[in-house]
Write a structure and sequence with these properties.
mainly alpha, about 0% strand
C-alpha cells in the first residue's frame, strides 16, 4: 500500500508543481531555487549523463541490494522443499529489489527535478555544515512525499502510517535474524550451547535473543554518544568484501570436497568441459564483490576510513578466529571434534 501510494504521488507530480509546493509549504526555509544555488556555490555541478555514467554507477547501485535477500538462508530450515524454494526466493527478491529501486528512482527524479535532487544530495553528503544551516532535516523520501501530499491530512497520515508500519516489520526481521545466527553457532558449539536453549513457555531461544538485545543496546549507545558513526562506515566495505570468502570457497569446493560435491543437487554438479559451473560462478562472484568492496572503500561518500574503524574491523576478524579455535580446543579436550559438523552437507 505504501509503495503504491508513493509511486502515485511521485507519478502525478512534476518539477514545476513540486517547486511551487515547496515554496508554499517550506516558508521558513530556503526556496526550491535557493537550495540549488547554495549547492552550486559549494561546488556542485550538473552531472554528465550517458551510458558510460550509467555503467559506472551500477556497482554503487548494487550496494542497495545488500541484505535484501540474505534472510532466506536463515529461515531455510523452516521451508518445505528447500532446494527449489530458496533459489527461487533469492532470485525473485533480487529482481523485485531492482524493480523497486529503478521505478522509485525514476519517479522521484522526474517528480522533484533531477538537478535539484542531485544538488541537495551533494550538499548533504559533501558539506553537512552548509546543508544544516539551510535545512534541519535530511533530504529523505518521506520529506519529499509530505511536501507533495500537503495540504491533504489524509495523505499525510497515510504516508506516516505506511512508513511506520513498514519500519516496524523491518526492525522485527533484523532483530530476529541475528538471534538465529546465535542459535546456529551455539548448535555447532562455536559458542556456549546455552545460547541454543529454547524456552518451554515461549518456544523461543530466549538467551540468544537476550544477549543480542544487550549487545544492540551497547552498540546503539556507542553509535549515538561517541564518534563511532564515522568508524562504522567501514561496515559497508566489509559487507561487500565478506562475500568474497564464500565465493572463494565455492571455487575450490568441487575439487577439495569431491565426496560432498557428488552429494550436491544435480544443478550444482553441472560442468563446462571439466570445469564445474559453480566454480566459474565463484570466480565471477569473487571478482564482482572485490570490485564493489573497492568502490565502497575508495568512495568518501560511502566509507570514511579512520584508525578506529580499521581497528574495529581487524578486531572483529581476529576475534572470530580466536573464538573458533578456542572452542575447537575446549571441546577436543572433552572428546568432541566440532569440525565434524562441517564434513557433510546439512540436511535439506
Amino acid at each position: 500500500m505504501g509503495i503504491v501510494l508513493m509511486w502515485w504521488l511521485l507519478g502525478t507530480t512534476n518539477p514545476a508543481m513540486f517547486a511551487a509546493k515547496w515554496n508554499a509549504v517550506m516558508t521558513n526555509y530556503p526556496t526550491y531555487q535557493a537550495l540549488q544555488q547554495a549547492a552550486t556555490q559549494n561546488g556542485w555541478t550538473p552531472p554528465v549523463g550517458g551510458l558510460v555514467a550509467v555503467m559506472g554507477a551500477l556497482p554503487l547501485a548494487s550496494l542497495f541490494l545488500f541484505g535484501g535477500n540474505f534472510g532466506g538462508n536463515v529461515i531455510a530450515g523452516e521451508i518445505k522443499d528447500v532446494r527449489k524454494t530458496v533459489p527461487l526466493a533469492l532470485f525473485l527478491s533480487l529482481i523485485l529489489g531492482i524493480v523497486y529501486w529503478s521505478v522509485s528512482g525514476f519517479l522521484t527524479l522526474n517528480a522533484v527535478g533531477e538537478n535539484w535532487f542531485y544538488s541537495i544530495a551533494y550538499l548533504w553528503d559533501n558539506n553537512p555544515a552548509a546543508y544544516g544551516a539551510l535545512l534541519p532535516f535530511p533530504p529523505s523520501q518521506p520529506l519529499l512525499l509530505s511536501v507533495i501530499a500537503y495540504p491533504s491530512a489524509a495523505l499525510l497520515a497515510l504516508i506516516f502510517l505506511t512508513y511506520f508500519f513498514g519500519s516496524v516489520q523491518i526492525l522485527f526481521v533484523y532483530f530476529w535474524v541475528p538471534s538465529r545466527y546465535f542459535f546456529a553457532w551455539s548448535f555447532d558449539r562455536i559458542i556456549p550451547t546455552r545460547f541454543a536453549d529454547v524456552s518451554k513457555r515461549f518456544h523461543t531461544p530466549h538467551i540468544a535473543v537476550g544477549a543480542m538485545t544487550v549487545l544492540s543496546v551497547i552498540l546503539l549507545g556507542l553509535y549515538t554518544f561517541t564518534s563511532w558513526p564515522t568508524a562504522f562506515t567501514i561496515g559497508t566495505f566489509l559487507w561487500g568484501v565478506a562475500y568474497i570468502v564464500p565465493a572463494l570457497a565455492t571455487i575450490v569446493f568441487p575439487f577439495t570436497k569431491k565426496d560432498l560435491f557428488e552429494q550436491a543437487p544435480e544443478f550444482m554438479r553441472k560442468k563446462i568441459g571439466s570445469v564445474p559451473i559453480i566454480s566459474i560462478l565463484g570466480v565471477l562472484a569473487s571478482a564482482s564483490f572485490a570490485y564493489m568492496g573497492y568502490i565502497a572503500y575508495t568512495n568518501p561518500l560511502i566509507t570514511s576510513p579512520t584508525l578506529s574503524g580499521i581497528g574495529i574491523a581487524v578486531g572483529i576478524l581476529i576475534a572470530c578466529f580466536i573464538v573458533y579455535f578456542a572452542s575447537l580446543a575446549y571441546h577436543k579436550k572433552r572428546g568432541l571434534d566440532i569440525e565434524m559438523a562441517f564434513k557433510e552437507l546439512p540436511p535439506v
